[in-house]
Write a structure and sequence with these properties.
By secondary structure, the protein is an alpha/beta fold. It has helices spanning 19-25, 34-37, 43-56, 70-83; strands at 5-10, 30-33, 59-63, 94-96.
Length: 97
């Protein structure tokens, strides 16, 4: 059985008590964690990697944290744009914690 692809967006583990690790332990999912799966050496490297992963994801789990970054909201918007019909639609595949 194919595992659904889950993109873990938002705060880095070090700022939010390793929040992504709990999702990775659930099993049954293939998690994409930008901290480990994309080249974080420069914006020229990580933006294309991350946006490709967001587009390929079947589920997006976002943790904006207490000091959200613009990138989190860009990822959420991009995911919504790819998984809804029109502005204002909701998406049951988007989880914001």
């Amino acid at each position: 059985m194919k595992k659904p692809k889950v993109y873990l967006a938002g705060q880095a583990n070090m700022y939010e008590n390793d929040w992504k690790e709990d999702f990775k332990k659930l099993g049954g999912f293939k998690c994409y964690d930008w901290e480990f799966h994309s080249d974080q050496s420069s914006p020229d490297a990580f933006y294309p990697d991350d946006l490709r992963a967001v587009k390929d994801a079947e589920i997006l789990v976002a943790n904006p944290g207490v000091a959200p970054s613009e990138a989190t909201w860009i990822e959420i918007g991009y995911f919504l744009a790819n998984n809804t019909e029109k502005p204002g639609d909701t998406c049951e595949k988007l989880i914001i914690i």
